[in-house]
């Protein structure tokens, strides 16, 4: 996915700047935004390999394999919390390990990139969990920062505390502070409480963006809200936020300042949102539905991991996991890091608790389904081909959100053979 400099690489860079770093000047020379340069040098966030290559080239350096390594976000890897399933609300994503290596999807990337060049852009990216939404967004934002000199802010709602996601005023304060911080602007919240008493929360937030964000930058700003489905668990916050975002988009048609703002909303599919269509951003703008990888992309993924695969091996893997981006990468990562493992062994043990997919992926779903028998019963009936219920039921939409099922030819099907075999075996009678 993304990379950081090793100690070797950092030392190479440091030798070019004996007087210290000026991120703005370095960025201008490299064709990168200063925040991207900061990511590279501080090593607290990863960037794509092409970005490192561009950076090293600007310093007349060759990027060698000893100069960089995969970025591991320890907080994300460790945070395997199982989200509570609520019968009257949607289940949001589970979070643990994110996809790390990027496989290009040129048609989708081009559509996303071109959409963000327009002044009234609202871009919606929809796909089940771990299908590559976040890494696609990261890739496009880095391209826009480098080529178009855009500013970009990406906010994942996984980063918000429960207090931020349960009370609208706290949420808006957190949002404003987060945006200002990422843009390296002062966080101006001293008068927030007085302003909200007089003008209300949405107006105060809107005025904050206008006065302390949009007026302070010269370039267009892409604001990406990732894992938006986490807000759908709170109807009040969801409706208020979506209405506010729609009003921001409407402002762009008559206010040149708001024409700087482009919105990207990334979320899981089939989420119930009870909101007036005229107040929702979900019925305007451009929709991107992220598909599974096709065989050619899986083959490219194998090549990225320096695996010499043929069409038969690609087909064997896809017969088990489909084109599920995370499961495909997990397979390749296991093959590269475990000397005694083979594809045959992986496939043989795949639907068992001894398989590579159990602890890193499947057991969280198993816990949710066992805890909520109503959901498990619906899923088992789909596995057995016996489901005759409402295709738009809440249970079906929840299973879609989790990525366990998919629509195909007017039917609801298990997403892949791995899920069918594993859950048929371990769910048992519920």
Number of helices: 20
> H/E series, N to C?
EHHHHEHHEHEHHHHEHEEHHHHHHHEEH
Radius of gyration: 23 Å
What would you give as the CATH superfamily of the largest domain?
P-loop containing nucleotide triphosphate hydrolases
Described by strand count, sense and barrel closure, the largest sheet is: 5 strands, parallel
| Count of the domains | 4
* Percent in strands: 5-15%
User: Tell me, what is the CATH class of the largest domain?
Assistant: Alpha Beta
Number of strands: 9
**What is CATH's topology name of the largest domain?**
Rossmann fold
Low-confidence stretches: 73-98
Strand order of the largest sheet: 4-5-6-3-7
> What is the terminal-to-terminal distance?
39 Å
Shape: globular
What is the share of helical residues? Answer: 40-55%
Based on secondary structure, the structural category is alpha/beta
* CATH architecture group name of the largest domain: 3-Layer(aba) Sandwich
| Average of pLDDT | 84
Concise synopsis of the structure shown:
With 430 residues, the chain is an alpha/beta fold.
Structure description:
Strand 5, helix 12 (235-251) and strand 6 form a beta-alpha-beta unit. Helix 2 packs across helix 3 (34-42) and helix 18 (373-383) crosses helix 19. The longest helix has 17 residues, at 235-251. The protein has 430 residues and is an alpha/beta fold. The protein has helices at residues 7-14, 23-30, 34-42, 49-58, 74-78, 106-115, 133-147, 162-166, 168-182, 192-199, 201-213, 235-251, 295-304, 311-321, 325-337, 343-349, 356-371, 373-383, 394-402, 417-426; strands at residues 3-5, 68-70, 122-126, 151-156, 221-226, 261-267, 286-289, 405-408, 411-414. Mean pLDDT is 84; it is low at 73-98. It folds into 4 domains: 3-71, lambda repressor-like DNA-binding domains (434 Repressor (Amino-terminal Domain)); 104-289, Rossmann fold, CATH 3.40.50; 295-348, no CATH class; 350-430, no CATH class. It contains 20 helices and 9 strands. Helices cover 49% and strands 10% of the residues.
């Amino acid at each position: 996915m993304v990379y950081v400099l090793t100690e070797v690489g950092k030392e190479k860079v440091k030798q070019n700047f004996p007087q210290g770093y000026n991120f703005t000047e370095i960025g201008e020379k490299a064709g990168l935004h200063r925040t991207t340069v900061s990511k590279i040098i501080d090593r607290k966030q990863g960037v794509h390999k092409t970005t490192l290559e561009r950076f090293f080239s600007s310093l007349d350096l060759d990027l060698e394999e000893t100069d960089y390594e995969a970025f591991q976000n320890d907080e994300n890897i460790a945070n395997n919390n199982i989200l509570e399933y609520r019968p009257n609300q949607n289940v949001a994503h589970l979070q643990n390990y994110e996809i790390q290596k990027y496989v290009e999807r040129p048609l989708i990337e081009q559509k996303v990139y071109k959409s963000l060049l327009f002044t009234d852009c609202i871009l919606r990216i929809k796909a089940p969990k771990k299908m590559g939404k976040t890494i696609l967004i990261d890739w496009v934002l880095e391209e826009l920062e480098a080529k178009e000199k855009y500013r970009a802010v990406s906010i994942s709602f996984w980063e918000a505390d429960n207090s931020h996601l349960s009370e609208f005023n706290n949420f808006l304060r957190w949002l404003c502070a987060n945006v200002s911080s990422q843009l390296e602007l002062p966080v101006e919240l001293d008068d927030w409480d007085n302003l909200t008493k007089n003008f209300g929360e949405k107006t105060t937030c809107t005025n904050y963006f206008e006065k302390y964000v949009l007026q302070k930058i010269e370039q267009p700003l892409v604001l990406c809200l990732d894992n938006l489905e986490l807000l759908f668990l709170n109807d009040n916050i969801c409706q208020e936020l979506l209405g506010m975002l729609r009003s921001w988009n409407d402002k762009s048609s008559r206010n040149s300042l708001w024409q700087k703002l482009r919105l990207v909303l990334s979320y899981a599919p089939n989420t119930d949102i009870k909101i007036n269509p005229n107040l929702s951003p979900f019925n305007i703008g451009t929709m991107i539905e992220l598909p599974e990888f096709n065989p050619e992309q899986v083959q490219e993924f194998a090549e990225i991991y320096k695996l010499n695969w043929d069409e038969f091996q690609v087909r064997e893997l896809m017969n088990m996991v489909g084109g599920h981006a995370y499961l495909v990468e997990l397979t390749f990562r296991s093959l590269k890091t475990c000397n005694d493992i083979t594809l045959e062994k992986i496939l043989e043990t795949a639907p068992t608790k001894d398989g590579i997919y159990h602890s890193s992926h499947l057991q969280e779903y198993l816990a949710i389904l066992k805890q909520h028998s109503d959901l498990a019963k619906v899923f088992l009936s789909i596995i057995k081909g016996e489901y005759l219920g409402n295709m738009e039921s809440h249970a079906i939409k929840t299973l879609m959100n989790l990525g366990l099922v998919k629509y195909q030819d007017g039917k609801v099907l298990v997403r892949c053979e791995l899920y069918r075999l594993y859950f048929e075996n371990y769910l048992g009678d519920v």
